[in-house]
Amino acid sequence: MKRKKWLSLALCVGLTGTLILGGCGNGNGDSGTGSGQTNQGAETKDAGNTEDTEDSSSDTTDYGPALKLTMGSTGAAEDISTQSAQKFCDLVKERSGGQIEIELFPASQLGSATDQLEMVSNGSIDLFLEANLMTTYGIDNLKPASIMFSTRGKEDQKKLMNSDYMQKNFDEFLEKSGIRVVSFDWYRNATAIASVNKIEKLEDCAGVKLRVPPVNSTVDMFNQLGFNATPVSYNETLISMQQKVIDAVWCTEDAIWTMGFYEPANYVFELNAAADCMYVYANDNLFSSTMTDAQRELIQECADEAGDYYTGLAEGALEENRKNWEAAGVETITITEEEQDRWAEIFFDYAKKQEAAGEWDEGLFEEVLSINGYSAD
After folding, report:
1. β partners of residue 105
2. C or N terminus of the chain, fewer CB within 10 Å?
């Protein structure tokens, strides 16, 4: 089991930072697997074993006083993110001997993703599982990391998440929002486009109404390809496709089956890019001031373990889900390397223009690319 050794509350309050895309990095600049913890007022200690070998029945740790917490998410009840969130809640209750209970509200029961993130900030809810929404709080230096093809797979994403670049953004986000990322070890599959229309090359994107998250930089980015990028709340995406409000949805590939996006679609276009994470967000006043050291450590451990569980489910589900939607008559098309380079060139040119216009600090896009050995030139 991964363990964390927390420093004093004074240090916890004195440091700041947290969150990326739904968002996901621990900022310790170390291994690709990471501990899933941003290094905010904490000293990370990795036991070198991701398996839980401790006998919780012999744990004499005092996890009091009793806590009853609320946690929201946007994933459907059947989605693997919801299954993994429930595992997190169950682990916390079991290992605390019932002293800490977390009630989960999936499927956007508490509101949209942006609404729930704001609720975490103001303390209306305690925890939230979602992808990266940090740029909505003005963390502009995170924008280069969201440029498509700046990472090209899960291993690239892990290196990015564990970089000093990410830690600086986590710190700024915590300071501005009062939200801490408890875990980002919830690595997702790469993204794809489920579409009514056939998409194989750049020219096929023209005018297609593509659902994207309500993040301005993401909207702008996809518009560069000719899409009519349309922000739609996640819980409204399926009905929007069914009612022909949108023609396609950009999402992690496994969600095409679990969220039902395959039903109105005829094609799945695999981009093999922009692997990302889910994040467990926490109200920092609760986490740093209300919780005891033992409670913080337990929440951290269980979130990391549930994240590993989620990552495994995501990897295992993708192949099965692909077979399922193909059996339902949906054709899978994989982007070619040549076409991927065409898309990347447009995205990278867009990033250069954004940087020149002062959207983020000079030189950051090249810094992001260099983490995984890429270049904009």
Report:
1. 72
2. C
Assign 3-class secondary structure to 316-340. Answer: HHHHHHHHHHHHCCCEEEECCHHHH
Residue 186's beta-bridge partner residues? 278
CA–CA separation, 93 vs 72, rounded Å? 17
Residue 371 lies in a domain: no
Q: Is the pLDDT of residue 334 over 80?
A: yes
CA 28/CA 164 separation, integer angstroms: 7
Number of domains in the chain: 2
- CA distance between the termini of the chain: 43
Q: Rg for the chain (alpha carbons), in Å?
A: 20
Dist CA 244 CA 265 (whole Å) = 11
Range of the domain at 89: 3-189+275-318
Global confidence as pTM: 0.74
Mean pLDDT (whole number) for 61-80: 94
The verdict on residue 373 lying in a domain is no
Cα–chain center distance at 187:
7
Mean pLDDT of the chain: 85
Backbone φ and ψ for 120, nearest 5 degrees, come out as -65, -40
Low-confidence winner among 84-88, 261-265, 313-317 (lowest mean pLDDT): 313-317
The two structure tokens encoding residue 312? 């495994």
Q: What are phi and psi of 21, to 5 degrees?
A: -115, 95
CATH code assigned at 268:
3.40.190.170
Q: In what order do the strands lie in the sheet with 67-73?
A: 100-105, 67-73, 127-130, 277-283, 179-187
Asked if residue 267 is part of any domain, the answer here is yes
Q: CB–CB of 90/282 below 8 Å?
A: no
Cα angle: 121, vertex 103, 316; to 5 degrees: 95
Residues 266, 255 within the same domain: yes
